[in-house]
């Protein structure tokens, strides 16, 4: 990397603000930029308190310093626990029509 003030970071910011929608920004920030700086640069700072942010899938705080090539990911909080949602779907479908052993061959033993 070049020394001095001319060095910059290339950062990708991906945010899912609504279901089924992902927005991406390619940013060039100064060395020493933080997660908060990246959110500010793409206009997400007002929503930062509602978003869960991570760098390459690892949770990150607003004061964390970014490195060149980082991907900052911002997601909405979960509205339903995934385990609970799966249980509810399974209960609504019924045990015989869902799951690994739903399609059995005629005459086979249970579980095969």
Automatic annotation (TrEMBL):
InterPro entries: Mopterin_synth/thiamin_S_b, RnfH, RnfH_sf. Pfam families: Ub-RnfH. It comes from the Bacteria. PANTHER family: UPF0125 PROTEIN RATB. Belongs to the UPF0125 (RnfH) family. This is UPF0125 protein P4826_06385.
């Amino acid at each position: 990397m070049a020394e001095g003030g001319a060095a910059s970071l290339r950062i990708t910011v991906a945010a899912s603000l609504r279901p089924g929608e992902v927005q991406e920004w390619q940013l060039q920030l100064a060395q020493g930029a933080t997660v908060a700086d990246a959110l500010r640069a793409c206009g997400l700072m007002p929503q930062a308190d509602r978003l869960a942010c991570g760098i390459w899938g690892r949770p990150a705080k607003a004061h964390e310093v970014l490195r060149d090539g980082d991907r900052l990911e911002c997601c909405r909080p979960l509205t339903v626990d995934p385990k609970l949602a799966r249980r509810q779907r399974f209960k609504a479908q019924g045990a015989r029509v869902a799951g690994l052993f739903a399609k059995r061959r005629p005459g086979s033993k249970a579980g095969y």
